Amino acid sequence: MVIKLQQELMINSYNTIDGRGANVHIAYGAGLTIQFMQHVIIHNLHIHDIQPSSDDNIRDFEDRWGIK
What whole-number percentage of the chain has pLDDT above 90? Predict the structure, then answer.
């Protein structure tokens, strides 16, 4: 299974993303963002060929965006 994200996937604290039992790829689109979080488990995912966003803003704190 290939998952192509249209925009970044923001991961919050206390979450598990489990790809066991399947061949899961996050590819050819946006990626995952894990920042300022606790207790996150990501298991058996293939993350590759992530494309940069055309957006000029990036997250530089939990609730604040900045310019690249």
Answer: 51
